DNA sequence: ACCCTACACTGGACATTGTCTAAGTCAAGT
DNA sequence: ACTTGACTTAGACAATGTCCAGTGTAGGGT
């Protein structure tokens, strides 16, 4: 555990939002001015491997990092402003895929992204 | 309808697979050698706007384009080789999101990606 | 037929995101 | 103190996508 890794972990834990790698880097720099992008990427990658943090890809621009890794959840994304909310749908989407639709795959995971317009954007 | 757009449409229609923009461009070049990347991107964007083609983002590298836009379906992706299959889960995932989990959003769409290991990779 | 205009296309520069590498730094063990 | 190895840094590089200025080109109006 180095100062750099601690700072990255603190940034993620401090704000329960979904930050991009560059946003994490920007916030980390305010606490540890000389931390490099490579270290942030490396550390985020390690946190993902350890299962402490989830990678989320709600748009096709940058990956985002979700510190809420220990509660299974899905995401609801505003198509206009990109806001992201964690949501908890009823049921288990994995159960909705019958064997006949698995083509011999060993299916281990499912990722659900709801898209819509948030109240802010709808009223604007 | 120009020669360039026809070629892009033919490439997508010809092979029912999920091509990246660059793969579309590579195939288009064999038929129309001087077609530019920008035109392929523009044309793909227009096809997406028209609803003729879907953008799929199964990995974080390149967007892929799915000509099967008129049959709602989801995707099953191999975590090792990246192979993509169209699948049709039972039920409607949109119905699984209760009002209490919508936070005032107008939810219009849902995207489901199953992940697993395909038979080929599992036996290797 | 000839110009004019609007649109599409081209090629390349640019932006964003992420990965890689060579070299530097630091701490622990010998 | 020296060696070793892990970590960090800075920057080059790669992949993908977007933008823009200049160049066709097709069709309408004369």
Keywords:
homodimer; 124 residues; Arc Repressor Mutant, subunit A; 2 domains; 3-stranded antiparallel sheet
Structure description:
Two copies of one chain form a homodimer. Chain A has 124 residues and is an alpha+beta fold. The first copy, chain A, folds into two domains: 3-66, Winged helix-like DNA-binding domain superfamily/Winged helix DNA-binding domain (Arc Repressor Mutant, subunit A, Orthogonal Bundle), CATH 1.10.10.10; 74-118, 2-Layer Sandwich (Dna Ligase, domain 1). Chain A has helices spanning 3-14, 21-31, 37-50, 119-123; strands spanning 19-20, 54-56, 64-66, 74-78, 84-87, 106-117. In chain A, helix 1 (3-14) packs across helix 3 (37-50). The first copy, chain A, is globular, with a radius of gyration of 17 Å. The mean pLDDT of chain A is 90. Chain A binds chain B through residues 55, 57, 60, 63, 76, 78-79, 85, 87-91, 93-94, 96-98, 101-119, 122, and chain B through 55, 57, 60, 63, 76, 78-79, 85, 87-91, 93-94, 96-98, 101-119, 122. The first copy, chain A, binds a DNA duplex (30 and 30 nucleotides) through helix 3.
Query: What is the strand arrangement across the widest sheet of chain A?
Result: 1-3-2
Spell out the CATH superfamily of the largest domain in chain A: Winged helix-like DNA-binding domain superfamily/Winged helix DNA-binding domain
* CATH top level class name of the largest domain in chain A: Mainly Alpha
Secondary-structure class of chain A: alpha+beta
């Amino acid at each position: 555990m180095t100062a750099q890794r601690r700072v990255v972990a603190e940034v993620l834990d401090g704000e329960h939002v979904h930050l991009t790698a560059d946003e994490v880097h920007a916030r980390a720099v305010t606490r540890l001015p000389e931390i490099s992008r490579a270290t942030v990427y490396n550390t985020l990658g390690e946190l993902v491997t350890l299962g402490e943090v989830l990678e989320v890809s709600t748009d096709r621009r940058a990956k985002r990092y979700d510190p809420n890794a220990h509660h299974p959840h899905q995401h609801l994304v505003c198509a206009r402003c990109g806001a992201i909310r964690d949501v908890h749908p009823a049921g288990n989407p994995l159960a909705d895929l019958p064997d006949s639709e698995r083509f011999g795959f060993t299916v281990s995971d499912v990722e659900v992204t709801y898209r819509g317009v948030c109240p802010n954007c709808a009223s604007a």
